[in-house]
């Protein structure tokens, strides 16, 4: 069980990944993203998650550079966007991301969405980047069990991470169990359901009991579910508060109560239907 912001999970290839990090989805390029990355790193975060489609990789790179923390102490993730899927185009997209970030390598590179028929080709490109030492770990995002089964059938290297929408209204138990069985680390995006979960009365009762915020209760539930978590914020105070989840522990009963809030309800698109940016 993670007990501090620097605690790590070991991926199936031996690479160590922080349990907790900063997501920068919808954080504006320029000073907004630079400052939030710097604030996170200054306050002990070591993992930053971006993506080509967020259009803020340059700012993330500047924030990293200005943070003054050595590159090897950080864990940086980016993702290949749908319209770049395919073997050659993925290799090119990777170089573009790296250039924008101003980095020599990535710690984790993900396929952003499965789409319909190109992700196996895209995965071959990720395997090549991994074998060439350009990226320390490779994975996928928004893959359901059937996508993973299909990919694992033909891949040489199994994904190390699957980053999905995950919060108390979308507990994805089947997916979590499948990933644990296959040695794939599950990671949560939108862990607070874009704020919608924070008004839940049960979450708020627990917040009162522990003297914590509703957000801290949910983020703690993620970690105790053994799910890597990357809440997004642009306010330094909130960045600090989000990470202040290592000094208490929910009971098994409370964990089950939160699990029971599941409605299989998404704020993002269903990966089986989402084709935005895919070129056929």
TrEMBL record:
InterPro entries the record matches: AKR, AKR5G, Aldo/ket_reductase_CS, NAD(P)_OxRdtase_dom_sf, NADP_OxRdtase_dom
PROSITE patterns in UniProt: ALDOKETO_REDUCTASE_1 (PS00798), ALDOKETO_REDUCTASE_2 (PS00062), ALDOKETO_REDUCTASE_3 (PS00063)
Entry keyword set: NADP, Oxidoreductase
Record-annotated NADP-dependent oxidoreductase domain positions: 30-262
One Pfam family hit: Aldo_ket_red
Family: Belongs to the aldo/keto reductase family.
Name of protein: Glyoxal reductase
Organism: Neobacillus kokaensis
